[in-house]
Backbone:
C-alpha cells in the first residue's frame, strides 16, 4: 500500500492485493487476492472484495457491499474471470456485483461516475456504461448491457441478455424483458412498456429542442404509427439522415439479438 492510506486494524487485506495512494479501508472489511484498488478510493466497514477485480480511483464504496464475488451461474466451474470498475463511482450499502463467466466473455465491467444505490445487484457478464443511476433494489440479470446516462428506478428488474440504450429511463417497479432503445422512458405494468421518450432527462443533459423533436419523431414511427417493425425501421432510416440520435436508435435496433421492447 502506498503512503497516505488508512486501513482499520480489524480489516483483512491479502498481501497480494494492491492499494493505491490514499485508499481507506473500513472496519472488518475483507480484501482478497487479485484485487487492485486505485488512488483515493474509500471502502466502508464490513465490505468484501474478491478478485480478480480491478477498481479505479476515487470510488466510494459504502458498508456491507459485496464486490467481485463468484458468478451466480451453475455453469461456472472456477475458471479465472474478473470484474472491472472504473473511476468516481458511488456504491451504496449491500450492493452486490459479481465477476464474469468463462462462457459469457469472462468479465463484468462498470464505467465511471455511476451511482449504485442500496441493494443494487449487477450479475455476471454485465456491461454498465458511465453516469448511470441505479436506485434501490435495481437488479440486472446476467449478460445485460446498459448504456451511458441510464436511470433505473427502484425495484426495476432487467431480464438476462437485454440491452438498455443510452439516456433511457426505466420507471419504478418495471420488469424489462426486451431491448429498450436509447432515449426511451419505460413504465411499470405486468412487464414494462415504452411510454414516450425521456424528455426531462434529455433537457437536463443539454439536448436542444431540435434534437429532442427528432427523437420524438423516431419514437412515433416506432411505437405509435401502427407499423410493424420492418416498416418502422424503414421510416427510422429516412429520419436518420437528419439526426445522429436517430441513427444511434437505428444502430441499436439493428445490432440486437433479443426482441425489441414494443
Residues:
Amino acid at each position: 500500500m502506498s503512503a497516505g492510506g488508512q486501513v482499520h486494524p480489524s480489516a483483512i487485506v491479502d498481501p497480494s492485493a494492491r492499494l493505491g495512494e490514499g485508499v481507506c479501508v473500513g472496519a472488518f472489511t475483507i480484501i482478497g487476492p487479485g484485487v487492485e484498488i486505485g488512488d483515493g478510493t474509500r471502502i466502508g466497514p464490513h465490505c468484501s472484495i474478491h478478485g480478480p477485480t480491478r477498481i479505479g480511483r476515487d470510488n466510494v464504496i459504502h458498508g456491507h457491499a459485496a464486490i467481485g464475488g463468484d458468478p451466480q451461474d451453475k455453469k461456472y466451474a472456477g475458471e479465472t474471470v474478473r470484474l472491472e470498475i472504473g473511476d468516481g463511482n458511488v456504491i451504496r450499502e449491500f450492493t452486490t456485483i459479481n465477476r464474469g463467466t468463462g462462457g459469457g466473455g469472462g468479465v463484468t465491467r462498470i464505467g465511471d461516475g455511476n451511482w449504485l444505490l442500496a441493494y443494487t445487484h449487477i450479475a455476471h457478464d454485465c456491461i454498465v456504461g458511465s453516469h448511470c443511476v441505479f436506485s434501490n433494489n435495481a437488479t440486472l440479470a446476467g449478460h445485460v448491457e446498459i448504456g451511458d446516462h441510464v436511470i433505473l428506478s427502484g425495484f426495476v428488474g432487467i431480464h438476462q441478455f437485454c440491452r438498455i440504450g443510452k439516456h433511457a429511463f426505466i420507471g419504478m417497479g418495471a420488469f424489462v424483458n426486451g431491448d429498450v432503445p436509447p432515449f426511451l422512458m419505460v413504465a411499470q405494468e405486468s412487464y414494462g412498456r415504452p411510454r414516450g421518450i425521456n424528455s426531462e432527462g434529455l433537457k437536463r443533459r443539454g439536448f436542444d429542442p431540435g434534437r429532442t423533436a427528432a427523437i420524438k419523431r423516431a419514437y412515433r414511427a416506432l411505437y405509435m404509427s401502427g407499423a410493424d417493425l420492418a416498416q418502422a425501421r424503414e421510416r427510422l432510416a429516412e429520419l436518420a439522415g437528419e439526426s445522429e440520435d436517430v441513427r444511434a436508435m437505428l444502430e441499436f435496433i439493428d445490432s440486437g439479438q433479443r426482441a425489441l421492447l414494443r
User: Anything to note?
Assistant: The chain has a mean pLDDT of 95. The chain has two domains: 6-143, 203-254. The first helix runs from residue 199 to 204.
